[in-house]
Amino acid sequence: MDPITHGLIGLGIASFSGGDLSLQNPVYMSALIGALAPDFDIVLQAKGDLFYLRHHRGVSHSIPGTALLAGLLTFPLALVFPEAPFWTLFTWAWLGAVSHSVVDIFNSYGAELFWPLYRKKVSVNLLNIFDPYLFLLLTAMLFAQEAVPAVHGWGIGLGALYLALRFGLNRRVRRLLERKYGSQAKRIMVMPALKGNWTWDVFIETKDNFIVGHIYSFSLMFNLRRMLWKQHNSLIKTALESKLGRLFKEFTPLFYVSLQRTEKGHLVRFFDLRYHLKQQFLHTGTAIFNDENKLVEEVFSPYLGKRNIKIAS
């Protein structure tokens, strides 16, 4: 989720302490900083886009990782709030950090919540990076806590109902696709769209192709974006076993591979099917083969190809 939503959730958790809402309150400050802390892994960007994208929402978002972050944060917090017990600061910072990781599993990127026991990112595909309804609910809860004694109960109840609604809509779309494609579908994925809070990106994998489109929650109107036919070739097999191929297998649960002939050889293109923006897939990669079918270069192109990263062979 976006940092403002994470911060609001951290402050909301701190409000259960019964203390006054104030950044001079050590409980609120601890929970707020803790709720932002897992995304401090932005420092990994110093090693480049490739390293960051591979490790973002990794160890820092795990249960042990959040405990370590809370411990590290507690020392400077103790200097700012010497009157507060060490374990009080640690507990609220850790609760804030855990809330960050738990909320992040609700969108399609997911988080390695159970590292090191389970190293894959967990995702339940219900929320986008920013959800305006959740944002408004959290803001109302935070600033109404003194005026409305039962605001926590109402807020938790409304939040649970909203998530239940989105879960129901997600399942409704999935059932529609299961009826439509039946036994043809090897895999069906329904994810919140990057644009449109009530729109879902859908992906159906069959024996022969990938069907990529989006569906509106209430009308259930389906718009086809792409029909991607599977290709089978020795060059594609080689590319899948290359560093670029291993990167895509690790980076995304859903990708497509195509083969294109050029004047100087062949291009094997990789497409991360999860994110579609401006009629393009957000993250792509290219394995370049010469006329002798030898792999000569591998390039990872994140963020709509705005950056091209050569992968050393």
Classify the secondary structure makeup into a structural class. alpha+beta
Shape: globular
The parts where pLDDT drops under 50 for at least 5 residues are none
The whole-angstrom Rg is 23 Å
What is the multimeric organization of the chains shown?
Answer: single chain
Q: Give the amount of beta strand, in percent.
A: 15-25%
Please provide a brief summary of the model:
This protein is of the alpha+beta class and 313 residues long. The protein has helices at residues 3-14, 26-36, 49-55, 63-80, 86-104, 132-143, 151-181, 234-240, 243-251, and strands at 185-192, 199-206, 209-216, 222-229, 255-261, 265-272, 276-277, 280-281, 284-290, 295-301, 309-310. A five-stranded antiparallel beta sheet has the order 5-6-9-10-11, covered by helices on one side. A four-stranded antiparallel beta sheet has the order 1-2-3-4, covered by helices on one side. A two-stranded antiparallel ribbon has the order 7-8.
Features:
single chain, 313 residues, alpha+beta, 3 domains, five-stranded antiparallel beta sheet, four-stranded antiparallel beta sheet, 9 helices, 21% strand, globular
